[in-house]
Amino acid sequence: MLAVHFGAGNIGRGFIGSLLHQSGYEVCFVDVNREIVDLINERKSYSIGLADDSNEEIIVKNVYAIHSGDHPEQVMSAIAGADLVTTAVGPNVLPLIAGLIAEGLKQRMATGTKPLNVIACENMIGGSALLKKEVYSKLDEEELEKADEMVGFPNAAVDRIVPNQSHADPLKVVVEPFYEWAVDRSQVVGELRVAGMTLVDDLMPYIERKLYTVNTGHAVAAYFGYQAGYQTIDEAMADPKIQSLVKNTLQETGKLLVEKHGFNPEEHQKYIDTIIRRFVNPHISDDVTRVGRSPIRKLGPQDRLVSPAAQYITYLKEQPVSLAKGIAAALRYDYQEDPEAVQIQESIRQKGLENTIYEITQIPPESDLMKRIVGEYSHFAL
Ligand SMILES: NC(=O)c1ccc[n+]([C@@H]2O[C@H](COP(=O)([O-])OP(=O)(O)OC[C@H]3O[C@@H](n4cnc5c(N)ncnc54)[C@H](O)[C@@H]3O)[C@@H](O)[C@H]2O)c1
Ligand SMILES: O=P(O)(O)OC[C@@H](O)[C@@H](O)[C@H](O)[C@H](O)CO
Q1: What CA–CA distance (Å, rounded) separates 312 from 361?
Q2: What is the ipTM of this complex?
Q3: In angstroms, rounded to a whole number, what is the distance separating the alpha carbons of residues 143 and 107?
Q4: Cα–Cα distances in Å, from 27 out to 6, 71, 126, 153, 293?
Q5: Residue 294: which region, alpha, beta or left (left: phi > 0; alpha: psi -120 to 50)?
Q6: Which atom of ligand 2 is closest in space to residue 290's alpha carbon?
């Protein structure tokens, strides 16, 4: 069995590649990082360390890699013969890989009818659906009909904290022991069996619970932590003020999730407690600038800050207080090496705060939420 995985980065090697290998797949990584591609091909294996007291090491074997810029034809023929395609490249990169996937599917559909699932493992709602839309825009009528029969794009929620790595061995990746990979069963074609993957009938509760708890909590810890001058998430969480801001934010998203999806409140509190423990894992050092990366994406209307804030108002008929403060902290994120942070600061200078907030978040200009965010931003204090 062959799995083609786009993105041999932290989550690609540290999570998806590992589960695919354990499930008996040969894994073909597709990436644009020449150093990583060459090393994978030289060694045909890499090691994963578990970030806990065990020091356990897992060796992932039976892997190779293709540089998609140098050898697009090899990527296409790998997709034509693959049993599964997955991605972990970042939401903004999905449109950039859609062309290669479409070409691979064309080859595949010209010579056979074997079903194929394509799963985007990105932190977003509807990642595979977005990829499908991009891929479909490159197919003609006849190919679209065949793709409808043969190709599934099930959405997914993936959870495992994999920080940026700094080991002597550039392929090594240290990951937390916890992981979850939930996939929408209704969009799967043919058979899909991966060890550690859970097929679910309704993905929405899973993806919203994950994004609005793990990623909302993570994002506010990063943005508050950055404002306070901390380097890493565990340092930020050791500050009682920040820890309590993060917990208050997760009470708000928790109230929304319980109301919207009917989660048991006690069970949900346990879920929150587990996540807080994951953030303070002493074996992981996760930079606030990794967790806060791409603030325009994170402030998007469907993402981890603005979506739960807007839904909180809809479902609970109240204004969110902590989420508004978290959004204000994200707007103040001015890390010079993050192009999106630089862009936000430039936009605030040129167009003003309210126009910038509206452009990025779509929060209506005269709304109470807008006023609250502007107030928090203007008198920002932790
Ligand atoms: N790291 C985590 O804790 C974590 C957990 C869950 C989900 N995710 C999600 O997984 C995705 C990847 O995150 P990451 O932390 O692994 O990032 P990363 O930067 O470590 O990995 C991304 C990889 O994609 C590659 N890439 C970029 N453009 C490409 C292209 N055009 N074609 C092929 N490869 C390309 C990069 O070279 C890199 O190796 C993101 O959507 C992220 O939200 C990350
Ligand atoms: O990957 P991002 O930029 O969407 O979010 C940063 C982190 O919150 C994220 O990577 C988490 O570590 C991960 O989602 C945990 O499952």
Answers
A1: 15
A2: 0.99
A3: 10
A4: 10, 17, 24, 19, 28
A5: left
A6: 6
- Indicate the angle between helix axes 322-331 and 353-361, nearest 10 degrees: 110
Task: Provide the b/e sequence for 109-126 (b: ≥16 CB within 10 Å).
Answer: beeeeeebbbbbbbbbbb
Residue 161 CB less than 6 A away from ligand 1: yes
The SS3 call for residue 82 is coil
Mode of pairing for the β-strands spanning 45-50 and 173-175: parallel
> Does 8 appear as a known binding residue?
yes
Structure tokens at 163: 């920080």
Tens place of pLDDT for every residue, the chain, 382 residues? 999 999 999 999 999 999 999 999 999 999 999 999 999 999 999 999 999 999 899 999 999 999 999 999 999 999 999 999 999 999 999 999 999 999 999 999 999 999 999 999 999 999 999 999 999 999 999 999 999 999 999 999 999 999 999 999 999 999 999 999 999 999 999 999 999 999 999 999 999 999 999 999 999 999 999 999 999 999 999 999 999 999 999 999 999 999 999 999 999 999 999 999 999 999 999 999 999 999 999 999 999 999 999 999 999 999 999 999 999 999 999 999 999 999 999 999 999 999 999 999 999 999 999 999 999 999 999 9
Q: Which amino acid belongs to residue 214?
A: V
Distance 285 CA to ligand 1 centre (A): 18
Ligand at minimal distance from the CA of 291 is 2
- Residues whose CB falls within 8 Å of the CB of residue 213, separated by 6 or more in sequence, listed in order: 250, 253, 254, 257, 271, 272, 275
**CA-angle at 16, arms to 2 and 71, nearest 5°:** 55
Cα 42 to Cα 103: distance, rounded to the nearest angstrom:
27
Nearest to 126 by CA among 201, 59, 28, 204: 204
- Give the separation between CA 160 and CA 187, rounded to whole angstroms: 23
User: For a substitution probing ligand 1, which of 89, 210, 284, 286 has the most ligand atoms within 8 Å of its CB?
Assistant: 89
**Would the annotation count 67 as a binding residue?**
no
C-alpha 169/C-alpha 39 separation (Å) is 10
Ligand 1 atom with least separation from CA of 8: 39
7 is in an annotated binding site: yes
